[in-house]
Amino acid sequence: MKLYYTPGACSLGPHIALEWSGADYQTEAVPFSDERLNEIYPEGNGKVPILDRENGLPPLTQSPAILRYIADRYPGARIGSSDSVDELAEINRWLVFLCADLHPVFHPVFVGDRYTTDQSQTAIEAVESAARTLIRKELEVLERHLQGRIYIVGDSPTIVDAYAFPMLRWAQVKLPEKLENTPNLQRLHDALAADAAVQKVMNAEGLTS
Ligand SMILES: N[C@@H](CCC(=O)N[C@@H](CS)C(=O)NCC(=O)O)C(=O)O
């Protein structure tokens, strides 16, 4: 399999999941929004992650689908596959929360110019400020859920934690208070950052912290 990623982007989640799964995989780094992504897979809309399963099927896009695929293809790794429909429902619930609720509120702090027709510095800063409020609101949902837990679902790391990790890193960069007001998120971030496989992936992506 081959994962196309942008260093530090949401594709960091599938990259970590591949490492945890024990899969034999390759990667290619592609700059943010680069035209190369449309060459790789025009239906991917110029975004990462893209996973080429090298099984004759079209590449897979959408982080939750890629993460679910990795977990289910490598069930022995126990990172999110389950025989329990209730456990699967819980994992899928958090995958969707991260994809549909948390990830989108980060977009305006990275590409604020896309969220206003007024391209002035003032207008873009207003977009970023509004987005930071939304980020804090969504992070609070996860912060409350993590009370008394180490990982998001169950007592060992899963694809949900892998997917949350890049967003926790973004919060540290884009919020002035970083994760200081959300100790449970800080703890999750630190536990994942200390994981040897996560560190290997971070090194591979050229990320320092
Ligand atoms: N719903 C998609 C979102 C993917 C996405 O937005 N990826 C970002 C990086 S975190 C991207 O490649 N953006 C490029 C762009 O918007 O031009 C998923 O979950 O995979």
Description:
With 209 residues, the chain is an alpha+beta fold. It has two domains: 2-79, Glutaredoxin (3-Layer(aba) Sandwich); 85-195, Up-down Bundle (Glutathione S-transferase Yfyf (Class Pi), Chain A, domain 2), CATH 1.20.1050.10. The protein contains eight helices and four strands, in the order E-H-E-H-E-E-H-H-H-H-H-H. It has helices spanning 12-21, 36-40, 63-73, 85-110, 121-145, 159-174, 183-193, 196-205; strands at 2-5, 26-29, 50-52, 60-61. It has a four-stranded mixed beta sheet, with helices on one face. Strand 3 (50-52) and strand 4 (60-61) form a beta hairpin. The relative contact order is 0.15. Glutathione (GSH) binds at residues 6, 9-10, 32-33, 46-49, 62-63, 99. Glutathione is lined by residues 6, 9-10, 32-33, 46-49, 62-63, 99.
Separation of the first and last Cα atoms: 27 Å
Number of domains: 2
How many alpha or pi helices? 8
Uncertain residue segments: none
The secondary-structure element order is: EHEHEEHHHHHH
Question: How much of the residues is beta strand, in percent?
Answer: 5-15%
Q: Which outline best applies?
A: globular
Widest β-sheet, arrangement of strands: 2-1-3-4
Bound molecules: glutathione
- Here the CATH topology of the largest domain equals Glutathione S-transferase Yfyf (Class Pi), Chain A, domain 2
Which second-level CATH architecture of the largest domain applies?
Up-down Bundle
Helix percentage range? 40-55%
CATH class of the largest domain: Mainly Alpha
Q: What can be said about the biggest beta sheet? A: 4 strands, mixed
In round numbers, the mean pLDDT is 98
Beta strands, count = 4
